[in-house]
């Protein structure tokens, strides 16, 4: 087990290193305006001086090495445009809790709604007319086909028109303002969980051991619960990291849509404003979070399924 | 109970006997002669994979309907600029009476979809935008498919490159696609090429993995072992033995890649890294419409592109899934 | 055998499947009496309907299948009319239990085998907790699994194929049924294990006073275990009789063909016998005798009218016009004649 874990973390670190270095190199291609607050007002000489001060004129490998050295000490540089001379880490530290709250709430809601939905759909699939199954499928098709950006917008519109929910979070006093963003953000995951759980449960239903359990004389509701659901739930665990990533990406959009002062809105902002160090820092954070999530997913899988032997794992996940 | 049975049997016998005349009786109780070809006929009828696939697909009325809708839509987007009375999507139209731009006009008989906030014809813009978005979608899907299939086949079949691809996959898979998109658009100037490039970067490896998984399952099947024993070349095995079985998976991914590409484009546009306004796209139009969302009378500028987008994405999703289901031999009765 | 010895009586059973708008007539008016305590073997090729037949006794037909005619009389009730799960729960396990073909997939991979047997014990022996656990251990010993204490907590993938099948049998027996249906119990097992499993079932049958129905296409298994044989073809029983009668004096051309196909009867150097053609497509209505197109000895009437059962002896009957007094004398194939001679010798001893 430990051997596998070490291998997995090692591999992920390589990926992380690769990504960060790639991002770093790409960022160096960005126009230098991103390092100065009032670029237009500076003379060429001042610009040069500024570049030298930031160490941007050194060769690339040197810069990379310096970056890692600083990053491991917890120093990601300072923002130059967004909030001048404030360390990137400080800014991030403010924003992270907000995004975390939003993300966790959305994930929990997604599980609380998505999993029962999957079960109901699987149950409905066994009936003659499969009404629940069809309705659920329609919902899932819609969410999966139409780009999230589109239905997020419409949800915001509908929510404020029909339910008079506040459109923006900042400046709003009530917790009600959080309803729309959390619900919106959870939708893709609800569809995801619902679809996969239903598919796995329906697949399990045709398996031989279910038939034997029926022949044994076990009630079908008990079979659903004790055999089908339990077994179908196991592979579901591998989707948790993917849904986590979905949430992270989705939060970028949602946060700016609802003016939530979190990481996502920050990213959009600093991209628009071309604050290079900020973009770099945020990308680094997202990449790390993503990779940790994937490792966790693998671990969860092995815990849930006694058949998987950890030391022996082939190629791609 | 046995009396019930033997009674039934007797009645059956009597029924048969009553129906026969003595001549018929003696004629019937003679050997019928044996034709082994008749014996073979008793079995199941001719099975053609593609025939059954298409038959199964056309039974799905929703998918067929949407296919027709998409075909009509595609045709229209291509033909639209050549129809009489169409306007240029980028021209600003002025009110002939006072020379001021016709801004935010509601849909009327002159401008079927109305005009946007700077006076451009929304009808023309929407169709131009659909063309752009669909173009991006098709190109991305096509490149992904091509690269992905080739890579996947090699990955799955040729043992020597397997390790290389697997490691490559492990690295690329962990890169969130959106991030790559953002970075690319950030650094290279936003344009159609940039977007296509960025989207293809990460998409092909997923297709490659699907193809590879299928091939791994199929390559050790007996009919492929037999081909290898006969000395068939690798390429021939890949293309003639394995590829037909991958059609279902490939079609599904291609069909889903198109709405995914459009979705990415919308997302990028929102962040501000999308196509410039002179190239209308569904992403641009949605964004423009979004800015006016709060004013109810102007909502038409959001609704029209949304409807078109929804129709396209949902159609491709359903058609893709329906075709994949139809191509699955388990669903051929 | 008297009337009171009949434990299950099937009369004119019709089972149909609805497949994407087309109807498959899987069981076409089958009648069969099962006697208490006997070992009945139902033989036939794949697709003959033998599995479907027995599944209808327990309500295990797929969702698109239904009993469309006939009666299944058991314990004073007509099972053909059972529609709700509540009704079937009185039969499944409690009265009739089943052993499935593939022990690899018959067990839940994520539950210990102890738990899976316990499920049956709790349901049907009315025991709980410790008493249930002890009953499970007793059952494990019954089926010949060593070290039951340790085995109780193990998962199916830790067992070999033969051991897994023993577990499945343990589950079936733990239900304390009256009738045990074994659907191809040895097909997925090694030859060396097959005999062990068959002996196990025979021993359990005696111990628990069971009536066993075997479904198989392996005539070797049949010869080993069966008191009576029912030969099924295209959803109908074409021949029914005691084991010796069907083996040594078969009357239906399909049975002749089936027995001739046994490699053991082949002569070295000669081509092996095989039946040309394939079973009929049951989506279409069968006219006359279903086996007629593949039958070299078919009469014209075989294509016109379905033959009724003709009795060869009180315990042996076959559904073929060849047994009709008006039919010409037809000689069975060479191999069958040899079997007949062997049978005469056998009886003379």
Automatic annotation (TrEMBL), chain C:
Q: Where in the cell is it found?
A: Cell membrane
Q: Which GO terms describe its biological process?
A: peptide transport
Keyword annotations for this protein?
ATP-binding, Cell membrane, Membrane, Nucleotide-binding, Transport
- Name the Gene Ontology molecular function terms of this record: ATP binding; ATP hydrolysis activity
Q: Which residues form the ABC transporter domain?
A: 10-259
Q: Which GO terms describe its cellular component?
A: plasma membrane
Classification via InterPro entries: AAA+_ATPase, ABC_Ni/Peptide_Import, ABC_transporter-like_ATP-bd, ABC_transporter-like_CS, Oligopep_ABC_C, P-loop_NTPase
Instruction: Name the source's superkingdom.
Output: Bacteria
Topological relation to the membrane, as annotated: Peripheral membrane protein
Matches recorded under CDD domains: ABC_NikE_OppD_transporters (cd03257)
Annotated PANTHER family: DIPEPTIDE TRANSPORT ATP-BINDING PROTEIN DPPD, OLIGOPEPTIDE TRANSPORT ATP-BINDING PROTEIN APPD
Which family, according to the similarity comment? Belongs to the ABC transporter superfamily.
Q: What is this protein called?
A: Oligopeptide transport system ATP-binding protein
Organism classification: Bacteria, Bacillati, Bacillota, Clostridia, Eubacteriales
């Amino acid at each position: 087990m430990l051997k596998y874990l070490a291998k997995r973390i090692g591999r992920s670190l390589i990926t992380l290193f690769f990504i960060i270095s790639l991002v770093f190199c790409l960022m160096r291609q960005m126009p230098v305006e991103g390092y100065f607050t009032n670029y237009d007002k500076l003379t060429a000489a001042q610009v040069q001086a500024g570049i030298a001060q930031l160490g941007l004129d050194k060769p690339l490998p040197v810069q990379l090495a310096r970056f890692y050295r600083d990053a491991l000490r917890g120093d990601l540089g300072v923002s130059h445009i967004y909030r001048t001379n404030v360390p990137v880490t400080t800014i991030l530290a403010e924003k992270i809790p907000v995004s975390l709250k939003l993300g966790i709430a959305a994930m929990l809601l997604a599980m609380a709604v998505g999993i029962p939905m999957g079960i109901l759909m699987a149950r409905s699939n066994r009936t003659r007319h499969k009404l629940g199954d069809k309705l659920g499928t329609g919902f899932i098709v819609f969410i999966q086909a139409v780009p999230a950006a589109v239905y997020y917008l419409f949800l915001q519109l509908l929510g404020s028109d029909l339910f008079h929910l506040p459109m923006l979070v900042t400046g709003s006093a009530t917790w009600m303002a959080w309803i729309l963003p959390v619900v919106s953000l959870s939708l893709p995951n609800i569809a995801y969980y619902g679809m996969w759980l239903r598919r796995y449960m329906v697949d399990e239903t045709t398996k031989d051991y279910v038939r034997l359990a029926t022949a044994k004389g076990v009630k079908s509701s008990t079979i659903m619960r004790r055999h089908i659901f339990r077994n179908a739930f196991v592979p579901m665990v591998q989707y948790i990291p993917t849904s986590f990533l979905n949430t992270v990406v989705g939060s970028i959009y949602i946060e700016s849509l609802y003016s939530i002062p979190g990481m996502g809105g920050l990213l959009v902002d600093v991209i628009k404003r071309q604050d290079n160090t900020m973009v770099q820092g945020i990308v680094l954070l997202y990449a790390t979070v993503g990779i940790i999530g994937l490792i966790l997913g693998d671990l969860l899988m092995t815990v849930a399924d006694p058949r998987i032997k950890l030391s022996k794992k082939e190629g791609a996940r | 109970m046995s009396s019930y049975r033997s009674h039934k049997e007797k009645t059956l016998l009597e029924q048969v006997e009553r129906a026969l005349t003595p001549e018929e009786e003696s004629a019937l109780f003679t050997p019928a002669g044996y034709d082994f070809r008749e014996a073979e006929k008793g079995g199941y009828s001719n099975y053609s994979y593609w025939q059954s696939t298409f038959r199964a697909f056309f039974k799905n009325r929703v998918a067929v309907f949407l296919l027709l809708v998409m075909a009509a839509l595609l045709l229209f987007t291509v033909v639209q600029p050549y129809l009489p009375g169409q306007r240029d999507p980028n021209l600003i139209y002025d009110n002939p009476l006072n020379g001021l731009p016709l801004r935010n006009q509601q849909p009327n008989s002159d401008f079927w979809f109305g005009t946007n906030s700077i006076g451009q014809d929304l009808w023309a813009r929407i169709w131009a935008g659909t063309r752009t978005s669909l173009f991006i979608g098709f190109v991305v899907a096509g490149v992904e498919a091509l690269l992905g299939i080739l890579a996947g086949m090699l990955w799955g079949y040729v043992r020597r490159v397997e390790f290389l691809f697997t490691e490559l996959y492990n690295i690329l898979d962990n890169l969130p696609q959106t991030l790559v998109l953002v970075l690319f658009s950030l650094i290279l100037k936003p344009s159609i090429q940039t977007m296509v490039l960025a989207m293809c970067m990460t998409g092909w490896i997923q297709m490659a993995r699907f193809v590879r998984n299928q091939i791994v399952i199929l390559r050790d099947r007996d009919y492929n072992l037999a081909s290898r024993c006969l000395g068939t070349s690798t390429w021939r095995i890949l293309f003639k033995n394995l590829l037909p079985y991958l059609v279902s998976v490939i079609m599904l991914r291609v069909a889903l890649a198109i709405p995914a590409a459009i979705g990415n484009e919308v997302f990028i546009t929102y962040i501000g890294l999308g196509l410039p306004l002179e190239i209308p796209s569904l992403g641009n139009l949605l964004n423009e419409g979004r800015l006016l969302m709060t004013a109810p009378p102007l909502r038409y500028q959001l609704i029209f592109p949304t409807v078109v987008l929804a129709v396209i994405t949902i159609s491709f999703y359903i058609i893709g899934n329906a075709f994949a289901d139809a191509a699955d031999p388990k669903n051929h009765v | 055998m008297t009337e009171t010895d009949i434990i299950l009586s099937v009369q004119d059973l019709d089972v149909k499947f609805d497949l994407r708008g087309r109807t498959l007539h899987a069981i076409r008016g089958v009648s069969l009496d099962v006697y208490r305590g006997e070992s009945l073997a139902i033989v036939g090729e794949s697709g003959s309907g033998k599995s479907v037949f027995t599944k209808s006794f327990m309500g295990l037909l797929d969702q698109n299948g239904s009993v469309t005619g006939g009666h299944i009389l058991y314990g004073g009730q007509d099972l053909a009319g059972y529609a709700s799960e509540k009704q079937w729960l009185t039969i499944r396990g409690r009265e009739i239990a089943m052993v499935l073909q593939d022990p690899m997939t018959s067990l839940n991979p994520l539950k210990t085998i102890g738990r899976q047997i316990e499920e049956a014990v709790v349901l049907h022996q009315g025991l709980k907790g410790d008493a249930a656990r002890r009953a499970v251990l007793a059952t494990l010993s019954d089926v010949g699994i060593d070290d039951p204490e340790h085995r109780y907590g193990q998962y199916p993938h830790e067992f070999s194929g033969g051991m897994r099948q023993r577990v499945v049998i343990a589950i079936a027996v733990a239900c304390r049924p009256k009738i045990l249906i074994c659907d191809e119990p040895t097909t997925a097992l090694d030859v060396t294990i097959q005999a062990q499993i068959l002996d196990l079932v025979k021993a359990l049958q005696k111990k628990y006073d069971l009536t066993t129905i075997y479904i198989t296409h392996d005539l070797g298994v049949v010869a080993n275990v069966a008191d009576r044989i029912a030969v099924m073809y295209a959803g109908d029983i074409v021949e029914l009789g005691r084991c010796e009668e069907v083996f040594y004096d078969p009357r239906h051309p399909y049975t002749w063909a089936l027995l001739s196909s046994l490699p053991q009867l082949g002569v070295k150097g000669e081509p092996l016998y095989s039946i040309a053609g394939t079973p009929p497509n049951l989506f279409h209505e069968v006219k006359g005798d279903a086996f007629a197109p593949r039958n070299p000895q078919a009469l014209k009437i075989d294509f016109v009218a379905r033959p009724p059962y003709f009795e060869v002896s009180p315990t042996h009957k076959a559904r073929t016009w060849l047994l009709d007094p008006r039919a010409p004398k037809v000689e069975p194939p060479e191999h069958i004649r040899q079997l007949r001679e062997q049978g005469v010798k056998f009886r003379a001893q």
